[in-house]
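hi! just following up on the protien thing from before. the input was this:
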Amino acid sequence: MVKFKISVNHNLCIGCGACEQNCDNFKLTDGKSSPVNSEVDEIGCNQEASDGCPVSAISVEEI
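and the predicted 3d structure came back as:
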């Protein structure tokens, strides 16, 4: 079964909240984004969050 790893580079993240608007798997904590679940079975809205990040801080990788 294919799984996906979701991660956020906190050095790049500007805390704009675009990921939260695109996907309920993200939350802002202390001004930085983090995935609620870092491994998911379906890519779902996580790719939309990654594509919508203005600083490309979110990565979605097949594992």
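DSSP finds two helices and five strands in the chain.
The two ends are 10 Å apart (CA to CA).
cheers
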